Amino acid sequence: MAKTQRLLRYARAEPVQLEPAAPISVTELVDRIGRGDRWAEEAFYRRHVGLVQATVRRLLGRNAEAEDVVQDAFVTAFEIWDQLREPEHAKNWLLTIAVRKVHRRFRRRRLLRLLGLDQPTDDATLETLARADLSGEARAELSLLDRVLKSVPADARIAWMLRYVEGASLEEVAALCECSLATAKRRIAAAHARVAEHVSLPELSHE
Amino acid sequence: MSKLRAPLRLTLDDLPSEEEIQRIWQRVQKRRARRRARRELRPAVWVGAAFAAACAALLVLAWVRPSPNAGPLTTAGQALAQVVGDATNAGVLELSDGSRIVVDPGARLEVLENSSRTFGVALRTGRAAFDVRPGGPRRWTIEAGLATVEVVGTRFTVARAPGFVDVSVERGVVVVRGERVPDRVRKLVAGERLVVREPDAAAVPEVAHAESAQDAERRPPAASPTSTASASPATLGFDELIAQADAARRRGDLRAAESALESALSGAPDRKRAALAAFTLGKLELDGLGNASRAAAAFSRAVSLGPPDAIAEDALARLVEAEGAAGQIDKARADALEYQKRYPNGRRAYAVGRWLARP
Q1: Distance of alpha carbon A120 from its chain centroid, rounded?
Q2: Chain A partners of B5 at a C-beta cutoff of 8 Å?
Q3: ipTM confidence score
C-alpha cells in the first residue's frame, strides 16, 4: 500500500529542471587535472580536441596520421602535466606539443620517402576540407595551394599554415614552432614566396 | 583576384564529429593505460636489461681478456727458443701452462708450432720426457721421424735415434701414429711402451710394458750419438744397444756398431730379439766389415734362434751368401737346399740357387 502511494507521488511530480553548469575556468581545470581528476581531464580534452584535431589535420593533410598525433599529443600532455607553468596558456601549450609531433611526423615521412617506404595518402587536403558552399574557383585555388605547399619544406610549410590557415600571430607561430620570431618570419616569407608564384593570396604582415 | 582570404580556416569545415571525439578519447585512455603498465614494468625491464648487459659484458670480457693459456707457450716469461737441447747438459723447460719438458743431454728438440691451440715439436734426436698439464687447450704433437705422438695431458718419454723411436707412457694416454706403427696408429696407456724401428732395423714394432718412471729417470740417455760413446753397453737395454749400433753404423764407426750388436745379442731378452740382433750383426760383418766367416756365424745364429717371419727368409739367404763368401761351400749348399725347400718361390731363390749350380 505504502509502495503504491510512493509510486503515485513520483508519477505526479513535475520534471526536474537541470541547470547547465557554469563553465569551469581554465585555471581550475588545470588545477583539478593536476590533482588527478578524471572528469577534469575529459573536460579539458573536449574543450580543446576540436582545435587540436583541425589544426593537426590541416598541417599533416592525412586523417589517420592526424588522429594518431592528436591522441599522442593528449597522452603526452597528461603525462607531463606538471610541466605546465602557466595554466591560462594551457591551450597554446597543448598546441605546441601537437605541432612538435607534427614536425616529427614530417621528419619520419622524409626518412620513409628516402627508404622508398612512404605511401602518400593525402586524404585531408585543404580542398577536401573546404566548406560545402565554397565556390568552384575557390576550391580550385585550394587544390592548387595544396600542390604548391607539398613542394615547400616542412618547417616553412608548418609556419606558413599556422599563419595563413590558422590565423596565428607571428609571436604565436614562433611559440608553436619553438623557434625565434625571426626564424618564424623567415620561414613564413620563404613559403609565401613559393605560394605567391601560383596563388595570389593577399600577403599578411610579416612584421 | 584570388577568391581566398586568410585565415583560410574560415573557408574550411573540418571540426571533428562527436563520434570522432569519443573515439579519440577512448584511444587516449587506452594509450595512457598501456604507458602506465609499461612504466610499472620498467624497473623490472631495467633490472633484466642490466642483468643481460652484465652477462654480455662478462662474456665479452671472457672473450677478450687474455687467459693464462692464451697465445703461445712461454718459459719464464720468455718466448720459447726454436731449438732446445745441449750436447752436454740436460735441459728443463718449465712452460707457462704448467707443463714440463726434460731434454736429455745431446737430444735436440725443435719447436715447430706454438699457438694457443697447438704445440708441435720435432724430436730430432735423443730423448725427451714430456709432462703435459692435463685439461690444457693445446694439442701437443711430438714428431719423432718414424712416429708422431699426439697427446692432451699426460706424462711420457720419447727417445729417438736413427731408425728407432721409443715411446713410453707413465701417466695418461697418448696416440702414436706412423707408417711403421701397427695399423698406422696405436693408443698407449700408462705403463705401455712402443718401439718403432725402420725396416732394416726390425720389421716388427713392439709394444711392451714400460719401465717404471724411476727406471726411466735413472736410464742414461739412449740413442744419442754423443751419449753412445760414454755409455757402458752393460748398462744399456736391448733397444738402446740396437739404436746405438745404428747410430754408430750411420756415422761410420762399424766397430762400435759391432760391439753394440754383440752386446745386444748377448743380452737380448728373448730369442726373437736375439735373432734380430744376430741378423743385423751378420749384415754388418758381411756388408760393412767384409768378415764373411763372422757374418756366417751371426746369420747361422739368427736362423737357429728362430727369427721373425719378416726376416727369416733373408736370414737364411744371407747365411748361404756368407758361407759361400767364407769358402764354406758345403754348408752353403746345404743351407741353399734348405732355402729352396722352405721358400721354393722365394725372393732370393735365384741368388741362392747359384750356389747349388756351382761344381
Answers
A1: 21
A2: 201-202
A3: 0.84
